[in-house]
Design goal:
The structure is a single chain. The chain has helices at about 90-100, 115-125, 155-165, 185-195, 230-245, 260-270, 280, 285-300, and strands at about 1-5, 10, 15-20, 25, 30, 50-55, 70-75, 75-80, 105-110, 135-140, 175, 200, 205-210, 210, 215, 225, 250, 270-275. By secondary structure, the chain is of the alpha/beta class. The strands form five sheets. The chain has an eight-stranded parallel β-barrel, surrounded by six helices. A four-stranded antiparallel β-sheet has the order 7-8-16-13, with no helix packed on it. β14 and β15 (about 215) form a beta hairpin. α3 (about 155-165) packs parallel to α4 (about 185-195) and α6 (about 260-270) crosses α8 (about 285-300). The mean pLDDT is about 95. Bound molecules: flavin mononucleotide. Flavin mononucleotide binds near residues 33, 138, 203 and 254. Flavin mononucleotide binds near residues 228, 256 and 275.
């Protein structure tokens, strides 16, 4: 891309991303659960500059979530056990959607369910609202299951739920995968076979914190999900493995704090990235990361950011 200014030819970096089913103005998406419903950030940043944002997970009905404390810091990470507290689809449509539907960015709704049918009914219910660019199917939350495994920890369950939701709506589907598995490639392939348009990974790693002085757990739910820079090398590895396994686009996340972190995920094979925990430290971080990744491309003489995707150099 070139622009002429005062007779000088300026070379611009094209940071737009085409996921096939969805075009993003840049590869940076704010991650679910760390960006509210978007409205909380309206007074803080210009959301129109984002590649997109994902809302907090929505069940059909309002949810109270888990008992406090729900957040605990760790060295380089954050443990959370929010338990998918949410306002439910009706309140979302009535009170939130009118405030965000006109934004000039990609709106992705993170959907949850107690069972496969609840996921499908939310997808069907929201399907007429064409300002919703995609659903992110949250089948990977580590702190809501009651003793059992979440669907993203089993290939058959992943296939079954993706297939059912896909048949219930025309809105594109991004399936969010769990890192709490032995073989991420197998689960990513199941999502692809079920008809998912893309996969996003990773959700949080199951963890816990203990206060040795009091011998109490740091989280009310005892167990929670770990996010932030502490998980980045593991998330990066999984994004690399999933990208090798599937043909559908991979959206990578896990500890991205800078444009260079984002570049690492893209080089590993991601087409776009999500930024989560960084939003708690600096509500401006998504916009800063967009600038930094643009500078990265300029420095490395990359005209189109899409050329960076999967460009890991394995030559010795
Ligand atoms: C407080 C908190 C709440 C979250 N809630 C959701 C959620 O509702 N749905 C979801 O799919 N992921 C949720 N996540 C996971 C993030 O979207 C993201 O996958 C994870 O934090 C890893 O990225 P990060 O290290 O950049 O935060 C949540 C994460 C945090 C820290």
């Amino acid at each position: 891309m070139q622009r002429i200014l005062f007779g000088i030819e300026l070379k611009m970096v094209d940071i737009s991303v085409d996921l096939g089913f969805l075009k993003l103005k840049n590869p940076v998406i704010a991650a679910s659960g760390t960006f509210g419903y978007g409205i909380e950030f309206l007074p803080l940043i210009d959301l129109n500059q984002l590649g997109g944002f994902v809302t907090k997970g929505l069940y059909f009905s309002p949810k109270q979530g888990n008992p406090p404390p729900r957040l605990a810091e760790t060295p380089c990470g954050l443990l959370n056990s929010i338990g998918l507290q949410g306002i439910g689809v009706e309140k979302f449509l009535k009170e939130v959607f009118p405030q965000i539907k006109g934004l000039k960015t990609v709106l992705i709704i993170n959907i949850c369910g107690e069972n496969d049918e609840e996921y499908a009914s939310i997808a069907e219910y929201l399907d007429p609202y064409k300002e919703i660019s995609a659903y992110e199917l949250n089948i990977s939350c580590p702190n809501v299951k009651k003793g059992g495994l979440c669907p993203a920890q089993n290939p058959e369950d992943t296939y079954k739920i993706v297939k059912l939701v896909k048949s219930s709506c025309s809105t594109p589907l991004i399936t969010k995968l769990s890192p709490n598995v032995t073989d991420i490639s197998e689960i990513a392939l199941s999502a692809q076979e079920g008809g998912s348009d893309a996969v996003s990974l990773v959700n949080t790693f199951l963890g816990m914190g203990i206060d040795a002085e009091t011998r109490k757990p740091r989280l009310g739910n005892i167990l929670g999900g770990l996010s932030g820079p502490a998980i980045k090398p593991m998330a990066l590895r999984m994004v690399y493995q999933a990208s090798k396994a599937v043909k559908i686009p991979v959206i990578g996340m896990g500890g991205i704090m800078t444009g260079r972190d984002a570049a690492e995920f893209i080089i590993a094979g991601a087409k776009a990235v999500q930024v989560g925990t960084a939003n708690f430290i600096d509500p401006d971080s998504t916009l800063r990361i967009i600038d930094e990744i643009t500078d990265f491309c300029k420095r490395h003489k990359i005209d189109q950011i899409q050329d960076l995707s999967g460009s890991l150099d394995l030559d010795s």
